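User: Hi! I have a protein structure encoded as tokens and I'd like to know what sequence might fold into it. I'm fairly new to this, so please keep things simple.
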């Protein structure tokens, strides 16, 4: 058995759980390939594309900082800082000091960045509609509710693996 939680066991077996994990891995691989493909169509890497579109969407609610993007995407601040630097060099993002806190930087999408995203909007919509075609409205709403818990569980599982790795290194 690869799980102990009764909610994950069916008829004394972990077969259903393994099937779900393998399905999630297959979907994740396709999701990543789609992101890379959308990025490629905009001459960006997948992560750069994700960061660019996230800055555009997050800016609708107010100022966007590196930490805002990092938190939204569950990336490290250092990674976002490096990728934003690359996007700025391409003229797609502008960085400006935050007027109320000089240690922070506000991020905005340039006109060129907006145009690049706008050119991709129709293709992105078609790809996303196709990618998530299996979901009805209630499925989508349920997935939105489940995702934060799955992400937190992933963070906790990684922390547990890190602890086990350190424990075994100390023991050996």
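Assistant: Happy to help. Inverse folding works backwards from shape to sequence: for each of the 172 positions I chose a residue that suits the local structure. Here it is:
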């Amino acid at each position: 058995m690869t799980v102990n939680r009764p909610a994950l066991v069916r008829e004394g077996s972990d077969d259903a759980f393994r099937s779900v994990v393998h399905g999630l891995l297959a979907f994740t691989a396709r999701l990543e390939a789609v992101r890379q493909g959308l990025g490629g169509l905009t001459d960006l890497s997948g992560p750069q594309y994700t960061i660019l579109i996230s800055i555009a969407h997050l800016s609708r609610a107010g100022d966007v900082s590196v930490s805002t993007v990092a938190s939204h995407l569950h990336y490290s601040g250092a990674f976002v800082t490096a990728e934003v630097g690359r996007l700025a060099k391409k003229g797609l993002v502008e960085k400006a000091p935050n007027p109320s806190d000089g240690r922070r930087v506000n991020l905005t999408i340039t006109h060129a960045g907006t145009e690049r995203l706008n050119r991709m909007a129709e293709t992105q919509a078609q790809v996303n509609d196709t990618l998530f075609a299996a979901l009805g409205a209630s499925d989508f709403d349920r997935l939105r509710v489940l995702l934060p818990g799955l992400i937190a569980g992933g963070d906790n599982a990684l922390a547990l693996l890190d602890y086990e790795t350190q424990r075994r290194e100390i023991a050996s």
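A useful reference point when you look it over: The mean pLDDT is 95. Feel free to ask if any position seems puzzling.
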